[in-house]
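Practice problem: predict the structure.
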Amino acid sequence: MKLSELAEITGSTVETGSPDTEISGAAGLDLAGEGDVSFLANPKYTPQLKSTRAAAVFLNPGIEADRGDLAVLRAKDAYVAYTRALMAFHPVEPITPSVHSTAVIDPTASISESVEIGANVVIGKCCSIADGVRIFPNATIYDGVRIGSHTVIHSGVSIRENCEVGKRCIIHNNATIGCDGFGYAKDEDRRWLKIPQVGRVVLEDDVEIGANTAIDRASVGETRVKRGAKIDNLVQIGHSCTVDEDALICSQTGLAGSSVIGKRVILAGQVGIAGHLKVGDDAVLTAKSATSHDVEPGKVISGIPGFDNKEWLRSTAAFRRLAEFARRLKKLEALLDKSGPPTSE
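Answer:
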Protein backbone atom coordinates (compact mmCIF):
# COMPACT_ATOMS: atom_id res chain seq x y z
CA MET A 1 0.00 0.00 0.00
CA LYS A 2 1.33 3.43 -0.93
CA LEU A 3 1.86 6.03 1.77
CA SER A 4 -0.70 8.31 0.13
CA GLU A 5 -3.33 5.54 0.20
CA LEU A 6 -2.61 4.86 3.86
CA ALA A 7 -2.98 8.55 4.64
CA GLU A 8 -6.41 8.61 3.01
CA ILE A 9 -7.56 5.51 4.89
CA THR A 10 -6.39 6.82 8.25
CA GLY A 11 -7.50 10.45 7.91
CA SER A 12 -3.94 11.78 8.05
CA THR A 13 -1.75 13.84 5.69
CA VAL A 14 1.68 13.09 4.25
CA GLU A 15 3.91 15.79 5.75
CA THR A 16 7.33 14.46 4.72
CA GLY A 17 8.47 11.55 2.55
CA SER A 18 7.39 10.28 -0.84
CA PRO A 19 3.66 9.60 -1.22
CA ASP A 20 4.68 6.55 -3.29
CA THR A 21 6.57 4.89 -0.43
CA GLU A 22 5.34 1.32 -0.03
CA ILE A 23 3.99 0.45 3.41
CA SER A 24 3.41 -3.23 4.15
CA GLY A 25 2.54 -3.37 7.83
CA ALA A 26 2.15 -1.58 11.16
CA ALA A 27 4.02 -2.06 14.43
CA GLY A 28 5.21 -0.20 17.53
CA LEU A 29 8.31 1.96 17.35
CA ASP A 30 10.52 -0.69 18.96
CA LEU A 31 9.20 -3.56 16.82
CA ALA A 32 8.73 -1.87 13.45
CA GLY A 33 10.89 -2.94 10.53
CA GLU A 34 11.42 -1.80 6.98
CA GLY A 35 8.13 -1.07 5.28
CA ASP A 36 6.20 -0.64 8.55
CA VAL A 37 4.32 2.39 9.79
CA SER A 38 4.40 3.22 13.49
CA PHE A 39 3.04 5.99 15.71
CA LEU A 40 4.01 8.44 18.45
CA ALA A 41 1.29 10.08 20.52
CA ASN A 42 3.14 10.66 23.79
CA PRO A 43 6.13 13.07 23.65
CA LYS A 44 7.79 11.00 26.40
CA TYR A 45 8.72 8.42 23.77
CA THR A 46 10.16 10.88 21.25
CA PRO A 47 13.75 9.52 21.70
CA GLN A 48 12.59 6.22 20.17
CA LEU A 49 12.19 8.02 16.84
CA LYS A 50 15.98 8.09 16.52
CA SER A 51 16.33 4.31 16.66
CA THR A 52 13.14 3.00 15.06
CA ARG A 53 13.47 1.11 11.77
CA ALA A 54 9.96 2.10 10.66
CA ALA A 55 9.53 3.62 7.20
CA ALA A 56 6.86 6.05 8.35
CA VAL A 57 5.30 7.29 11.56
CA PHE A 58 2.00 8.87 12.59
CA LEU A 59 2.64 11.96 14.72
CA ASN A 60 0.36 14.06 16.87
CA PRO A 61 0.36 17.83 16.35
CA GLY A 62 3.39 19.48 17.95
CA ILE A 63 5.67 16.44 17.80
CA GLU A 64 8.56 16.50 15.30
CA ALA A 65 10.57 13.55 13.99
CA ASP A 66 13.88 15.34 13.18
CA ARG A 67 14.84 12.51 10.82
CA GLY A 68 15.02 13.12 7.11
CA ASP A 69 14.71 9.44 6.20
CA LEU A 70 11.48 8.92 8.18
CA ALA A 71 8.22 9.72 6.44
CA VAL A 72 5.74 11.60 8.62
CA LEU A 73 1.97 11.20 8.55
CA ARG A 74 0.44 14.04 10.51
CA ALA A 75 -2.72 12.99 12.36
CA LYS A 76 -5.15 14.62 14.74
CA ASP A 77 -4.76 11.52 16.93
CA ALA A 78 -1.77 9.36 16.02
CA TYR A 79 -3.02 6.37 18.02
CA VAL A 80 -6.39 6.35 16.27
CA ALA A 81 -4.69 6.65 12.88
CA TYR A 82 -2.35 3.78 13.77
CA THR A 83 -5.34 1.68 14.85
CA ARG A 84 -6.97 2.25 11.47
CA ALA A 85 -3.71 1.24 9.79
CA LEU A 86 -3.67 -2.01 11.76
CA MET A 87 -7.25 -2.66 10.68
CA ALA A 88 -6.28 -2.06 7.05
CA PHE A 89 -3.36 -4.49 7.20
CA HIS A 90 -5.22 -7.10 9.23
CA PRO A 91 -8.79 -7.14 7.93
CA VAL A 92 -11.33 -9.51 9.45
CA GLU A 93 -11.68 -12.59 7.29
CA PRO A 94 -15.13 -12.82 5.70
CA ILE A 95 -17.30 -15.65 6.93
CA THR A 96 -17.73 -18.83 4.99
CA PRO A 97 -21.48 -19.54 5.05
CA SER A 98 -21.75 -23.06 6.44
CA VAL A 99 -23.14 -25.20 9.25
CA HIS A 100 -20.83 -27.91 10.59
CA SER A 101 -22.24 -31.40 10.48
CA THR A 102 -21.88 -31.80 14.26
CA ALA A 103 -23.86 -28.67 15.11
CA VAL A 104 -27.20 -29.33 16.82
CA ILE A 105 -29.89 -26.84 15.78
CA ASP A 106 -33.50 -27.06 16.86
CA PRO A 107 -35.84 -27.11 13.86
CA THR A 108 -37.82 -24.17 15.26
CA ALA A 109 -34.76 -21.89 15.15
CA SER A 110 -34.60 -19.25 12.41
CA ILE A 111 -31.08 -19.29 10.94
CA SER A 112 -29.96 -17.04 8.09
CA GLU A 113 -28.32 -18.78 5.16
CA SER A 114 -25.30 -16.45 5.39
CA VAL A 115 -23.98 -17.59 8.76
CA GLU A 116 -20.97 -19.66 9.81
CA ILE A 117 -21.67 -22.18 12.56
CA GLY A 118 -18.79 -24.30 13.87
CA ALA A 119 -18.47 -27.78 15.26
CA ASN A 120 -20.55 -28.86 18.25
CA VAL A 121 -22.51 -25.62 18.43
CA VAL A 122 -25.93 -26.06 20.05
CA ILE A 123 -28.79 -23.71 19.17
CA GLY A 124 -32.08 -24.10 21.03
CA LYS A 125 -35.74 -23.62 20.27
CA CYS A 126 -37.11 -20.48 18.62
CA CYS A 127 -33.72 -18.78 18.33
CA SER A 128 -33.07 -16.15 15.65
CA ILE A 129 -29.62 -15.85 14.06
CA ALA A 130 -29.22 -12.97 11.56
CA ASP A 131 -27.02 -12.50 8.48
CA GLY A 132 -23.26 -12.59 8.80
CA VAL A 133 -23.12 -14.14 12.27
CA ARG A 134 -20.09 -16.31 13.04
CA ILE A 135 -20.37 -18.84 15.88
CA PHE A 136 -17.17 -20.69 16.72
CA PRO A 137 -17.11 -24.31 17.93
CA ASN A 138 -18.61 -25.45 21.23
CA ALA A 139 -20.80 -22.40 21.81
CA THR A 140 -24.22 -22.95 23.39
CA ILE A 141 -27.23 -20.81 22.50
CA TYR A 142 -30.24 -21.48 24.75
CA ASP A 143 -33.91 -21.27 23.73
CA GLY A 144 -35.34 -17.98 22.52
CA VAL A 145 -32.04 -16.15 21.96
CA ARG A 146 -31.81 -13.46 19.27
CA ILE A 147 -28.44 -12.58 17.70
CA GLY A 148 -28.07 -9.57 15.38
CA SER A 149 -26.18 -9.40 12.12
CA HIS A 150 -22.39 -9.67 11.87
CA THR A 151 -21.93 -10.62 15.51
CA VAL A 152 -19.09 -12.98 16.46
CA ILE A 153 -19.54 -15.61 19.18
CA HIS A 154 -16.28 -17.30 20.17
CA SER A 155 -15.87 -20.86 21.37
CA GLY A 156 -17.12 -21.82 24.78
CA VAL A 157 -19.61 -18.95 25.04
CA SER A 158 -22.99 -19.63 26.64
CA ILE A 159 -25.95 -17.36 25.91
CA ARG A 160 -28.84 -18.21 28.16
CA GLU A 161 -32.55 -18.35 27.38
CA ASN A 162 -34.36 -15.33 25.92
CA CYS A 163 -31.30 -13.08 25.89
CA GLU A 164 -30.72 -10.67 23.02
CA VAL A 165 -27.44 -9.75 21.33
CA GLY A 166 -27.29 -6.81 18.91
CA LYS A 167 -25.45 -6.21 15.67
CA ARG A 168 -21.64 -6.32 15.30
CA CYS A 169 -21.08 -7.54 18.84
CA ILE A 170 -18.07 -9.64 19.84
CA ILE A 171 -18.33 -12.13 22.70
CA HIS A 172 -15.03 -13.74 23.62
CA ASN A 173 -14.26 -17.24 24.81
CA ASN A 174 -16.14 -18.73 27.74
CA ALA A 175 -18.17 -15.64 28.54
CA THR A 176 -21.63 -16.31 29.94
CA ILE A 177 -24.51 -14.03 29.01
CA GLY A 178 -27.64 -14.37 31.11
CA CYS A 179 -26.58 -16.65 33.95
CA ASP A 180 -28.83 -16.54 37.02
CA GLY A 181 -28.61 -13.46 39.19
CA PHE A 182 -27.35 -13.97 42.74
CA GLY A 183 -30.65 -13.65 44.54
CA TYR A 184 -31.83 -15.46 47.69
CA ALA A 185 -34.37 -14.91 50.45
CA LYS A 186 -34.09 -16.36 53.96
CA ASP A 187 -37.08 -18.55 54.81
CA GLU A 188 -38.72 -19.29 58.16
CA ASP A 189 -36.01 -21.85 58.97
CA ARG A 190 -33.27 -19.33 58.15
CA ARG A 191 -32.35 -21.24 55.03
CA TRP A 192 -31.61 -19.58 51.71
CA LEU A 193 -34.50 -19.78 49.26
CA LYS A 194 -33.48 -19.22 45.63
CA ILE A 195 -35.34 -16.34 43.99
CA PRO A 196 -36.39 -17.30 40.45
CA GLN A 197 -34.38 -15.42 37.85
CA VAL A 198 -36.82 -14.99 34.99
CA GLY A 199 -35.47 -11.79 33.36
CA ARG A 200 -32.97 -11.54 30.55
CA VAL A 201 -29.81 -9.78 29.33
CA VAL A 202 -29.78 -7.38 26.37
CA LEU A 203 -26.54 -6.44 24.63
CA GLU A 204 -27.09 -3.57 22.21
CA ASP A 205 -25.15 -3.02 18.98
CA ASP A 206 -21.32 -2.85 18.89
CA VAL A 207 -20.82 -4.23 22.39
CA GLU A 208 -17.70 -6.31 23.13
CA ILE A 209 -17.56 -8.78 26.01
CA GLY A 210 -14.23 -10.20 27.21
CA ALA A 211 -13.29 -13.80 27.96
CA ASN A 212 -14.68 -15.42 31.12
CA THR A 213 -16.94 -12.46 31.86
CA ALA A 214 -20.35 -13.16 33.41
CA ILE A 215 -23.42 -10.96 32.95
CA ASP A 216 -26.34 -11.98 35.15
CA ARG A 217 -29.95 -11.93 34.06
CA ALA A 218 -32.42 -9.89 36.07
CA SER A 219 -34.79 -11.63 38.44
CA VAL A 220 -37.50 -9.80 36.48
CA GLY A 221 -36.99 -7.24 33.73
CA GLU A 222 -33.54 -7.04 32.18
CA THR A 223 -29.85 -6.38 32.56
CA ARG A 224 -28.81 -4.08 29.69
CA VAL A 225 -25.42 -3.21 28.19
CA LYS A 226 -25.94 -0.32 25.80
CA ARG A 227 -24.44 0.52 22.42
CA GLY A 228 -20.69 0.58 22.10
CA ALA A 229 -19.84 -0.44 25.67
CA LYS A 230 -16.61 -2.44 26.00
CA ILE A 231 -16.18 -4.96 28.80
CA ASP A 232 -12.88 -6.66 29.55
CA ASN A 233 -12.09 -10.22 30.66
CA LEU A 234 -13.13 -11.53 34.08
CA VAL A 235 -15.78 -8.91 34.79
CA GLN A 236 -18.90 -9.61 36.85
CA ILE A 237 -22.05 -7.64 36.07
CA GLY A 238 -24.84 -8.36 38.52
CA HIS A 239 -28.55 -8.71 37.92
CA SER A 240 -30.60 -5.72 36.73
CA CYS A 241 -27.54 -3.54 36.04
CA THR A 242 -27.45 -0.95 33.27
CA VAL A 243 -24.18 -0.10 31.51
CA ASP A 244 -24.66 2.93 29.27
CA GLU A 245 -23.20 3.77 25.87
CA ASP A 246 -19.42 3.69 25.32
CA ALA A 247 -18.63 2.76 28.92
CA LEU A 248 -15.29 0.98 29.41
CA ILE A 249 -15.06 -1.66 32.15
CA CYS A 250 -11.65 -3.20 32.81
CA SER A 251 -10.68 -6.64 34.08
CA GLN A 252 -11.78 -8.02 37.45
CA THR A 253 -14.29 -5.27 38.06
CA GLY A 254 -17.48 -6.25 39.87
CA LEU A 255 -20.89 -4.56 39.69
CA ALA A 256 -23.42 -5.52 42.34
CA GLY A 257 -27.07 -5.79 41.43
CA SER A 258 -29.01 -2.82 40.03
CA SER A 259 -25.90 -0.67 39.49
CA VAL A 260 -26.27 2.06 36.84
CA ILE A 261 -23.11 2.98 34.93
CA GLY A 262 -23.33 6.16 32.83
CA LYS A 263 -22.16 7.06 29.36
CA ARG A 264 -18.39 6.93 28.70
CA VAL A 265 -17.63 5.92 32.29
CA ILE A 266 -14.25 4.23 32.79
CA LEU A 267 -13.97 1.61 35.53
CA ALA A 268 -10.32 0.56 35.79
CA GLY A 269 -9.13 -2.86 36.93
CA GLN A 270 -10.55 -4.42 40.11
CA VAL A 271 -13.06 -1.63 40.76
CA GLY A 272 -16.00 -2.51 43.00
CA ILE A 273 -19.46 -0.93 42.70
CA ALA A 274 -21.96 -1.55 45.50
CA GLY A 275 -25.55 -2.34 44.62
CA HIS A 276 -28.21 0.19 43.59
CA LEU A 277 -25.62 2.94 42.93
CA LYS A 278 -25.33 5.32 40.00
CA VAL A 279 -22.04 6.35 38.42
CA GLY A 280 -22.60 9.52 36.36
CA ASP A 281 -21.59 10.11 32.76
CA ASP A 282 -17.83 10.52 32.06
CA ALA A 283 -16.80 9.55 35.60
CA VAL A 284 -13.57 7.59 36.13
CA LEU A 285 -12.83 5.15 38.96
CA THR A 286 -9.13 4.34 39.11
CA ALA A 287 -7.76 0.83 39.68
CA LYS A 288 -8.72 -1.01 42.87
CA SER A 289 -11.20 1.68 43.89
CA ALA A 290 -14.56 0.92 45.46
CA THR A 291 -17.55 3.10 46.12
CA SER A 292 -20.55 2.75 48.39
CA HIS A 293 -22.20 5.97 47.22
CA ASP A 294 -23.31 7.55 43.94
CA VAL A 295 -20.60 9.18 41.83
CA GLU A 296 -21.27 12.54 40.21
CA PRO A 297 -20.82 12.96 36.44
CA GLY A 298 -17.24 13.73 35.41
CA LYS A 299 -15.68 12.91 38.80
CA VAL A 300 -12.40 11.00 39.08
CA ILE A 301 -12.56 8.72 42.13
CA SER A 302 -9.82 6.70 43.85
CA GLY A 303 -9.38 4.58 46.95
CA ILE A 304 -11.47 2.45 49.31
CA PRO A 305 -13.89 3.96 50.04
CA GLY A 306 -13.56 6.04 46.91
CA PHE A 307 -13.21 9.81 47.07
CA ASP A 308 -11.89 12.61 44.86
CA ASN A 309 -8.72 11.53 43.05
CA LYS A 310 -6.73 14.71 43.81
CA GLU A 311 -7.53 14.42 47.51
CA TRP A 312 -6.64 10.72 47.37
CA LEU A 313 -3.24 11.50 45.82
CA ARG A 314 -2.49 14.01 48.58
CA SER A 315 -3.65 11.53 51.22
CA THR A 316 -1.50 8.69 49.89
CA ALA A 317 1.49 11.04 49.72
CA ALA A 318 0.95 11.86 53.40
CA PHE A 319 0.41 8.19 54.25
CA ARG A 320 3.86 7.29 52.88
CA ARG A 321 5.36 9.76 55.38
CA LEU A 322 3.49 8.56 58.46
CA ALA A 323 6.54 6.70 59.81
CA GLU A 324 8.64 9.86 59.45
CA PHE A 325 5.94 11.92 61.18
CA ALA A 326 5.83 9.40 64.04
CA ARG A 327 9.60 9.62 64.54
CA ARG A 328 9.50 13.40 64.55
CA LEU A 329 6.62 13.42 67.02
CA LYS A 330 8.52 11.04 69.30
CA LYS A 331 11.54 13.37 69.25
CA LEU A 332 9.36 16.37 70.07
CA GLU A 333 7.78 14.49 72.97
CA ALA A 334 11.25 13.61 74.28
CA LEU A 335 12.34 17.25 74.09
CA LEU A 336 9.22 18.34 75.96
CA ASP A 337 9.83 15.73 78.64
CA LYS A 338 13.40 17.03 79.16
CA SER A 339 12.40 20.68 79.32
CA GLY A 340 9.53 20.01 81.67
CA PRO A 341 6.07 21.56 81.64
CA PRO A 342 5.76 25.11 80.34
CA THR A 343 5.89 27.88 83.00
CA SER A 344 3.93 31.10 83.01
CA GLU A 345 5.59 34.36 83.96
